[in-house]
Specification:
It is a single chain. The protein has 186 residues and is an alpha+beta fold. The protein has a single domain, classed as Histidine kinase-like ATPase, C-terminal domain (Heat Shock Protein 90), CATH 3.30.565. 53% of the residues lie in helices and 23% in strands. A hairpin with a 4-residue loop joins strand 4 and strand 5. Helix 2 packs antiparallel against helix 3 and helix 3 runs antiparallel to helix 7. The longest helix has 21 residues. It starts with a helix and ends with a strand. The relative contact order is 0.15.
Length: 186
């Protein structure tokens, strides 16, 4: 990367009011560190305790999604460095004038992307009360996946943010897509 690109990246992050940006492998230690950093930043920047809690709760769910659902795109397990970068994900948190944004990006199997998109479409159709009912229904009747999740994360993100989930699936190759999620919280 040419050195001038570093400054361009900095200017873009300034323009977007980026509070925190991370690209890499999401680990339990990273989860703790990011949450601690953001708790401190939100405490200093945001006067409303309610808004701080909403942002923090959405961030927790988004980080858990990255941790549990990022696909390993490396087919050659013998190459440690390649394997490290193949599980890489993206997290950005920005503060706009009247809302916060939590942006994530991660690799997903293209077959799984189709069912995830259907779930997001269904979630985005629901109002606040319907989301609450869906949450309770999944909580009471949902089954745990092989990764130990029950599918509550996106529902909870939509509930806590109070906004529709913005998303895109960008095709990478015949096996993987890159899932982009933008959550606005106000």
């Amino acid at each position: 990367m040419p050195l001038k690109n570093i400054y361009e990246l900095y200017k873009t992050m300034e323009r977007e009011n980026t509070m925190l940006s991370f690209k890499g492998v999401v680990t339990p230690d990273l989860l703790s560190s990011v949450l601690q950093i953001m708790e401190s930043k939100l405490g200093a920047l945001e006067k409303s305790l309610r808004t701080r809690k909403k942002v923090y709760n959405v961030l927790v769910e988004c980080l858990q999604n990255l941790y549990h659902h990022n696909e390993d795109t490396n087919t050659n397990k013998d190459q440690d460095l390649d394997s490290l970068f193949s599980k890489s994900a993206l997290l950005m948190i920005a503060k706009q004038d009247d809302y916060y944004e939590v942006k994530t990006g991660n690799y997903i199997d293209r077959d799984k992307a189709k069912s995830l998109e259907q779930k997001i479409i269904e979630i985005n159709k629901l109002n606040k009360e319907e989301l609450r009912e869906m949450y309770k229904s999944v909580l009471n009747h949902g089954q745990l996946s092989n990764k130990g999740t029950a599918g509550l994360g996106l529902i909870d993100i939509a509930r806590k943010s109070g906004n529709k989930l913005e998303y895109a699936f960008l095709p990478i190759d015949d096996k993987f897509s890159f899932f982009c999620l933008n959550v606005k919280i106000n």
